[in-house]
User: Fold this.
Amino acid sequence: MSNLEKLTLSIRVRGRNSFIDGIYLHNYVLTQMPHLHTFTFNIVTDFVRINQQFKPSSDDIRRTFIEKGYHVDCSVEYNDLKGGRCHVYSLPFNMKGIRYITHSFSGGMFMNVRVLHMCDLTHPFEHDLFARISHSFPLLSNLTVTNIMPQNENRSQELVESEEASSIIEYSHLVELSFSCASAHIDYVEEFLCSLNTRLPCLSKLHVEYEHLVTVTKNFTRNTTRMNCAKLTHINFRRKRGIVRSKDFDLYFPLLSYNNCK
Assistant:
């Protein structure tokens, strides 16, 4: 690898005693590549056991990269259960996919990203975060949501109907939406499928728990979720037991063939 001139690196490292920062990357990786002139990276270090009294902040990590000549953005978070987590990536971000985004995502512009995985097991995803995601990833076509925490902001129908239309989020290019099996709270199915929260004009593939879909659509009769389901051509149910294709089911998904519902 000593003759490498271009490198694109996307990694997730778990269980270290410190974050991967600019100093570590330079000393242990980049010095082995003297001809490298183009380096694009997306690095997540999580479940980090921070033993030292000083806990690096986002600015601390960002500074170690800037001092080595890299333009980056960075987020750092700590909690008692999972230890520390650091996500640092080079700018401009030219990769087609990015993982994992947590509740601490602050925004930015990612014009090239088509595939995104949001994952957080200790903090919920609120409506304003999804609005930020829609703005930051305008060409997003594939989204996976992993979060077992219920939302704190319960956007009831009465509240939503009283708000301006500008509060409704639109994912104009989203084709495929996945809710992780046993790791996605039903609140996120409601968040995305209810047209009072979100509009999905191109959604054609859905991965979801059957029970969640039944509940959110009120057994395939609810009008406020009908619009976001109308163009579905594929549904993958995370668990196969208890699936009933009633008359209401077939009317709710007019473009769904029998073979594309599994």
Summary: The chain has two domains: 1-94, 96-262. The two ends are 45 Å apart (CA to CA). The chain has a mean pLDDT of 89.
